[in-house]
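Contributing new records

If you add data, match the layout below exactly. Sequence lines come first and carry their own label; structure lines follow with theirs. Keep one chain per record. Anything else will be rejected by the validation script.
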Amino acid sequence: MLETLKKKSFKTSLILSVILIIAGIFVIAISFPDTLAAVSGYETFEDLEPDEIRNQLVEIDVNANFGCYMEEYSENTSTHRRTTTNLYYIIWTGDDYATDFRYMSIKVPARYEDEMEEIAENTYNEMRSAPLHLVGKIRKLSSEEYEYFEEYFSEAGWSAAEIEDATLPYYIDVTGSSVANSNTGVYILLCLLGVFFIAFGIFRIVKASRGGYLKKFRKAYEDAGYSESSIESDLASATSYNKKGTIKIGRLCTYYDLSSTVPKAIANSKILWAYQNTTTHRTNGIKTGVTYSVVIFTDGEKTGYTIGVPNEATAQEMLKKMNAMLPWIVVGYSEDLRKLFNKDRAHFLELRYNKVAHVAVEPGFEDINDSYNTGSEQ
């Protein structure tokens, strides 16, 4: 039975582990080129030859442009008011002395509009402008972006052949105007995150294959003095309380999450109190659902265990089983019990825990705690 739990733990762990590894590979694949470029430094755009321009991270001193040919905007769905977010300008490659150059684009945030327009005006008037230092990544124009780019030159009387020969279908996507390696930390962090995902995924697989996720499960019954063989037998004869058999009550332990990566066990001999908890969920005052659970408190631990159950009937069946088979447990909830448990634990222990032998009995034990309600509500 424990070997079956180990296999289930490995199987459920494997799903998330594979997802983590795939996610890590994906993150590294998309971030590694930028990480490498950021670490080694941004390339100077003016130094790139036309055939070298692809997808680099670059810094550029814009001192000439030939006007805006496209803008991006956001629209307020309530007022339908449009706000310009980004602008596309025509620039050329190379420095002032380049003999082999091409026209391409630069995409800048709208906050640079005044500066870019001033540079455009100076360019047409053959006046030199103070350079605007920007950093960004070279990207290829989408088909829609390229249509606007091509239209700009077509309206100037260029033929399709001339446009193809004298332009490049790329743009510099500006990310800021600070120092060239301003995004180095972001790229490195993304790459390291990908490495972490892969390493954690592999770690989970190794841990699950060795039964590492059953460590707390084993500790629960070993601390109570039970052997693995006795737990095997107890699990096999335990009563199941849902269709998938993930919640069981045996004579030695109460078991739950048996199909999860981390199955759990509570030694029955250490249980002090068990009751049903009913939680009503509301959204904007409207009832949206009710969930049920069995709350268990054990000796020596401040916080309780919460076992989610499908319905109230299941919770009541579990509590009746505990009350009949495990007579040292106080079963049911009342405000008096809560106050006694929190303020006078010694007195609470005298109700049952210290008075009844911690030996499971056959069902049919008389319920000596009928004066208490069986559940609490939230």
